[in-house]
Amino acid sequence: MENPQQILQTFRSELAEARSPASLRDLRVKYLGKKSELKNALKNLREVPAEQRAQVAKELNDAQAAIESELTEREASAQADELNRKLEAEWVDIGLPGVVTERGAKHPVRAVEERCLDVLRQLGFEVASGPEVESPFYNFDALNIPPHHPARDMQDTFWVQGGQVLRSHTSTIQARTLEKRLPLPLKFASPGRVYRNEAVDATHLAMFHQLEGFWVEKGLTFAHLKGVLSFVAGSLYENRKFRFKPKFYPYTEPSVGLDIACLNCGGDGCEACHQAGWVTIIGAGMIHPKIMKNFGYTEPGVRGIAFGWGTTRMTSQWLGLSRAKSLYEQDMRFMRTLRRRPG
Ligand code: DAH
Questions:
Q1: Is 285 in contact with 249 (CB distance < 8 Å)?
Q2: What is the 338 CA–ligand 1 centroid distance (Å)?
Q3: Å from CA of 278 to ligand 1 middle
Q4: How many CB atoms lie within 10 A of CB 185?
Q5: Is pLDDT larger for residue 29 or for residue 330?
Q6: For residue 57, with 0-12 CB atoms within 10 Å meaning exposed, 13-18 middle and 19 or more buried, which class applies?
Q7: Is 192 touching ligand 1 by the criterion CB < 6 Å?
Q8: Is 326 helix (H, G, I), strand (E, B) or coil?
Q9: SS3 breakdown of the chain: % helix, strand, coil, rounded to 5?
Q10: 171 lines ligand 1 (CB under 6 A)
Q11: pLDDT of 144-187, one tens digit each?
Q12: Domain 108-340: CATH superfamily, name plus number
């Protein structure tokens, strides 16, 4: 057997070389394990001559205690090193601003559409919808728009292959619903996109939004129409001035338009109203007797009122925009400037 001093020395030189936690574990087994030299020597103490036994035992125990404490110390510092290395490698700067998803908002046209529908729902209207690629029958003929009418011109309406049109107004829903001959009263509202083959300017676009509404019931009069339009305009635009004016539509008799005072109007050079001070946002009227008859609504006293809201213009007027076109350009720099969110 080597003497305890030598064992301790060899241990120390090996400890100095040990770099990894695994090599420290190996050293612990080698010097303090059951089969270590020191343990063996302690087991075999009785073979040591009696007079030396106490001395040898003390040396063995001292060596063992020294190894235990030096090894423990190194293990602890190796553990701390390991932790520091991890902290260094896996460090996260919690002070950095996080990645924030921007909060979205409804498109202003959609928001205005929803407000209109909310008000109409209070009056008992329900929502209907129809296709954007439409047969000319529902877009024109069924609405008493004669064959020579300019709206049928290629310059005014987009015709698609197969003789269909992109609907030029949401009044198509009126024709489609009347045709179904549902039990009275009929009270429907229908928002959606419409298309016109127009020269685009501040208030005219090739695609925009409208909302059609109509009501068929016994005993309806022009006063009901005025009442509905005033109620909706008043709910949406509060104290803005509005006015009715005579209009002509082939599918209503009599026909009216509703104008509101232009919000954007600085007078001279106002693009939103072409300097008129007023913007027409609704066309309306009593459903033409010919249409009522064609669809079979012939019972005495049954009348219809109908109205088409220009939801795009309404939105421009809501926000005070001079160019309705900017609503459809999807430019977030512009959209973010719309501080006054309807809704
Ligand atoms: N369709 C008309 C337009 O596009 C709006 C309109 C006018 C709708 C009178 C109606 C109505 O229902 O009765 O300008």
A1: yes
A2: 29
A3: 18
A4: 14
A5: 29
A6: middle
A7: no
A8: helix
A9: 45, 20, 35
A10: yes
A11: 998 888 878 877 899 998 999 999 999 999 999 999 999 999 99
A12: Bira Bifunctional Protein; Domain 2 (3.30.930.10)
